[in-house]
Amino acid sequence: MAVSLRRSKLAIVGAGSVGATLAYASLIKGVAHDIVLYDVSRAKVTAEVLDLRHGLQFCPPADIDGSDDIAVCAGADVIAITAGAKQKPGQTRLELAEVNVGICRDLIPRLLEVAPDCVLLLVTNPVDVLTMAALEFSGLGKSRVLGSGTVLDSARLRQLIASSLGVASQSVHAWIAGEHGDTEFPVWSSASIGTVPIADFVSPDGLRLDDVARERIGRDVVTAAEQIIRGKGATNYAVGLAATRVIEAILRDEKAALPISSLIEGQHGVSDVCLSLPSLVDKNGVMGVLDVPMSEREIGLFQASADAVKAVARSVGLGR
Ligand SMILES: NC(=O)C1=CN([C@@H]2O[C@H](COP(=O)(O)OP(=O)(O)OC[C@H]3O[C@@H](n4cnc5c(N)ncnc54)[C@H](O)[C@@H]3O)[C@@H](O)[C@H]2O)C=CC1
Ligand SMILES: CC(=O)C(=O)O
């Protein structure tokens, strides 16, 4: 008996550093049967697709295509938006809001015309504001619109903790919450190595994280992008992998806990703003935001992060 397998389709909007690297990581990890890139620059998208296509032999079976015609996104299950302006050295993510919300206002209705059943994943910065914009411009239910949020920042945090303590990143359980930006913060109160609370952890070599080390790590996460942008103009590899992880959780209906950005409705006294908290991700997008315990200090930081994102959202005509 012939088995018919429905092909999964990932559309990536923007074939710049982030979009092309996301396509590359998604191909290597085999997250979708069909991957397409859409960009306003025909020369750019054609060249990226050609280059990626030449590597297909070395990846799990998949097809890649691309165009400057938005119809290439037709029927996509997930649309990842990476199009738009990026930070120049010294610029904050929030300074990109006006121009990138404008791009989103034009893009989202046209994308939904060709892919009405998609889950929208925002990567463009400032990602929390852009997730709010996509919710508003799409009219989709809150579960179907999410941002890559602090999945990347949490990976940075885990790597820094892991290298400080001499353990594997995969054994570090720790999150960055709040804005993907300058007001983000590590949730130290629930961080652990394996099942050992980080405050109690001492490595076999006697390594532990004192308050000074934690402060330094928190600062290094916040300034990581700036450091990379000063050196090479953009960040692309880790964000490509982080966004691929979110897409994989959606297309495989994993119900995986990931710190994506989504509409916060009452957690820790915060509402009506998109921010990151660990959330379950399934085939419909956001299955639910988890009730993560936080210390009083962390709750204050979360509320301050909400205020910062709301102020920028309001300044570009979004939110209440
Ligand atoms: N959320 C996250 O963790 C991260 C977000 N970013 C953000 O991702 C965005 C993209 O960064 P890069 O790829 O480095 O920039 P880039 O400048 O290399 O690429 C942007 C691409 O968007 C395309 N584009 C612009 N307007 C478009 C439209 N209306 N429709 C289709 N394509 C359009 C451009 O032609 C260009 O190819 C920036 O906003 C950046 O800040 C970057 C790294 C991490
Ligand atoms: C650019 C950016 O948002 C990042 O690498 O975190």
UniProtKB/TrEMBL annotation:
<feature type="binding site">
    <location>
        <position position="148"/>
    </location>
    <ligand>
        <name>NAD(+)</name>
    </ligand>
</feature>
<feature type="binding site">
    <location>
        <position position="39"/>
    </location>
    <ligand>
        <name>NAD(+)</name>
    </ligand>
</feature>
<dbReference type="InterPro" id="IPR001557">
    <property type="entry name" value="L-lactate/malate_DH"/>
</dbReference>
<feature type="domain" description="Lactate/malate dehydrogenase N-terminal">
    <location>
        <begin position="9"/>
        <end position="147"/>
    </location>
</feature>
<feature type="binding site">
    <location>
        <position position="44"/>
    </location>
    <ligand>
        <name>NAD(+)</name>
    </ligand>
</feature>
<protein>
    <recommendedName>
        <fullName>L-lactate dehydrogenase</fullName>
        <ecNumber>1.1.1.27</ecNumber>
    </recommendedName>
</protein>
<feature type="binding site">
    <location>
        <begin position="84"/>
        <end position="85"/>
    </location>
    <ligand>
        <name>NAD(+)</name>
    </ligand>
</feature>
<feature type="binding site">
    <location>
        <position position="235"/>
    </location>
    <ligand>
        <name>substrate</name>
    </ligand>
</feature>
<dbReference type="InterPro" id="IPR018177">
    <property type="entry name" value="L-lactate_DH_AS"/>
</dbReference>
<feature type="binding site">
    <location>
        <begin position="125"/>
        <end position="128"/>
    </location>
    <ligand>
        <name>substrate</name>
    </ligand>
</feature>
<comment type="subunit">
    <text>Homotetramer.</text>
</comment>
<feature type="binding site">
    <location>
        <position position="18"/>
    </location>
    <ligand>
        <name>NAD(+)</name>
    </ligand>
</feature>
<feature type="binding site">
    <location>
        <position position="158"/>
    </location>
    <ligand>
        <name>beta-D-fructose 1,6-bisphosphate</name>
    </ligand>
</feature>
<feature type="domain" description="Lactate/malate dehydrogenase C-terminal">
    <location>
        <begin position="150"/>
        <end position="311"/>
    </location>
</feature>
<feature type="binding site">
    <location>
        <position position="93"/>
    </location>
    <ligand>
        <name>substrate</name>
    </ligand>
</feature>
<dbReference type="Pfam" id="PF02866">
    <property type="entry name" value="Ldh_1_C"/>
</dbReference>
<dbReference type="InterPro" id="IPR015955">
    <property type="entry name" value="Lactate_DH/Glyco_Ohase_4_C"/>
</dbReference>
<dbReference type="InterPro" id="IPR011304">
    <property type="entry name" value="L-lactate_DH"/>
</dbReference>
<keyword id="KW-0560">Oxidoreductase</keyword>
<dbReference type="InterPro" id="IPR022383">
    <property type="entry name" value="Lactate/malate_DH_C"/>
</dbReference>
<dbReference type="InterPro" id="IPR001236">
    <property type="entry name" value="Lactate/malate_DH_N"/>
</dbReference>
<feature type="binding site">
    <location>
        <begin position="123"/>
        <end position="125"/>
    </location>
    <ligand>
        <name>NAD(+)</name>
    </ligand>
</feature>
<keyword id="KW-0021">Allosteric enzyme</keyword>
<dbReference type="InterPro" id="IPR036291">
    <property type="entry name" value="NAD(P)-bd_dom_sf"/>
</dbReference>
<feature type="binding site">
    <location>
        <begin position="153"/>
        <end position="156"/>
    </location>
    <ligand>
        <name>substrate</name>
    </ligand>
</feature>
<feature type="binding site">
    <location>
        <position position="87"/>
    </location>
    <ligand>
        <name>substrate</name>
    </ligand>
</feature>
<comment type="pathway">
    <text>Fermentation; pyruvate fermentation to lactate; (S)-lactate from pyruvate: step 1/1.</text>
</comment>
<feature type="active site" description="Proton acceptor">
    <location>
        <position position="180"/>
    </location>
</feature>
<keyword id="KW-0520">NAD</keyword>
<keyword id="KW-0963">Cytoplasm</keyword>
<comment type="function">
    <text>Catalyzes the conversion of lactate to pyruvate.</text>
</comment>
<comment type="similarity">
    <text>Belongs to the LDH/MDH superfamily. LDH family.</text>
</comment>
<feature type="binding site">
    <location>
        <position position="173"/>
    </location>
    <ligand>
        <name>beta-D-fructose 1,6-bisphosphate</name>
    </ligand>
</feature>
<dbReference type="Pfam" id="PF00056">
    <property type="entry name" value="Ldh_1_N"/>
</dbReference>
